[in-house]
Amino acid sequence: MEAISYLGGRHNEYRPASIRKYYAALAVAVDEALATGAILPKQEAAYRDALKDRPRPRARSAESRTSAKKRKSVSMTEVRTVCRYLWTRGKPDDKLLVRLIKHGVFLGLRPSEYSDADRQGDLLVVRTRKTTNGRGLCAFRELDLVDIAPGEAASLDQLIVDFARASSGDLERLIDRLGARLRRACHHVGLAPFALYTTRHQAIANLKAAGKSAAEIAAVAGHKSLYTAGKAYAGRRSGWKAVPTAKATSAMLAKFEVQPTPQRPWSPKI
């Protein structure tokens, strides 16, 4: 019953086809539980009624959970324009969005990875997503923050705190909400909408434009393969010129047995 109740409360999370599939599986589980005696016959009606109480499906207009159809690059001017608008508007979600965009184009984290990010002095430790399907470099990766300014470190700390507070244990809903808010902001200032995941694409493009090696890019992005960034992400031509880029630690690079290229000084201009 706990599983049925939990799923019934996950409004705006799943497409109609997914809801039908999940509830069909739950119905089979109830049938099997009745057959084995795990559910008493007198309890059957309560379970059947619970199965009728389904969550609201995810809206067609909701942001896609994959990056396949999203913009893979965003210009510095576009970032400045939408961030200026959001910061001036000044609501908590607006300021959270600004920090996600600003740090996203530098760090290249997936939006969901901020939920587990932890700054430990000059290191940012991130739990890498997609490790369960064999595509991640390692369960946790480290980024070297030694070159960033104290103000940027403080802003990153605030982002991590605000992100955790805003998600309240419902990460997917937060990302959906922020994605919709970003789209509306882009429309308001006359820009073609870009997604939070676009900032990851842009960060990787910036690494390419800065001449970083495939191993360095993979280590920053958390890719196991040296070829993922080249095949699935924005190209070098989309990268911003002469901007600071994220830096993998020596421990991460050691997984590819390479040495880092020299890092540009940190001087954010967003």
Automatic annotation (TrEMBL):
Region Disordered, annotated ranges: 50-73
GO molecular function: DNA binding
Compositionally skewed regions (Basic and acidic residues) per UniProt: 50-63
Protein name: Tyr recombinase domain-containing protein
GO biological process: DNA integration; DNA recombination
Keyword vocabulary terms for this entry: DNA recombination
Taxonomy of the source species: Bacteria, Pseudomonadati, Pseudomonadota, Alphaproteobacteria, Hyphomicrobiales
Organism: Devosia marina
